[in-house]
Specification:
By secondary structure, the chain is mainly α. The protein has a domain at 19-67. The protein is built from two helices and no strands. Helix 1 runs antiparallel to helix 2 (38-58). The chain starts with 12 loop residues before the first helix and ends in a 52-residue tail after the last helix. The mean pLDDT is 74.
Length: 110
């Protein structure tokens, strides 16, 4: 039997905890309002959880809380980098020799 491996390090535990709290309170309120009818309690719990989830995920409340189970990832671009510019002509290197005259040496005739 093949199992799907879960990378537990990448689980957004705060988001899981928030959703679990929503389910707990939705179930608690659904049970209180249903007066002991299990089917009606389950229906109310599902509706209350859906309302809380939509409010939490899609309402712009501007709070620094997790609102998605997927962490924001940087966009991957597939654009190739521009070609490198040709090397610029370097300034000529001056010799360390202080002589600047390039006349040929005098040869002594014998």
């Amino acid at each position: 039997m093949n199992s799907i491996p879960i990378d537990w390090a990448n689980v957004n535990w705060l988001y899981v905890a928030v959703l679990a709290i929503f389910v707990f309170f939705a179930t608690l309120i659904g049970n209180l309002l249903s007066f002991g009818r299990r089917g009606f309690a389950a229906f109310l719990s599902a509706v209350l959880f859906a309302a809380a989830f939509v409010f939490w995920t899609y309402y712009p409340h501007h709070l620094p809380l997790p609102n998605s189970m997927f962490a924001a990832k940087p966009a991957v671009t597939s654009v190739a980098p521009p070609p490198a510019a040709p090397p610029a002509a370097a300034a000529p290197v001056r010799p360390s020799n202080p002589v600047t005259d390039i006349t040929p040496p005098v040869i002594n005739p014998r």
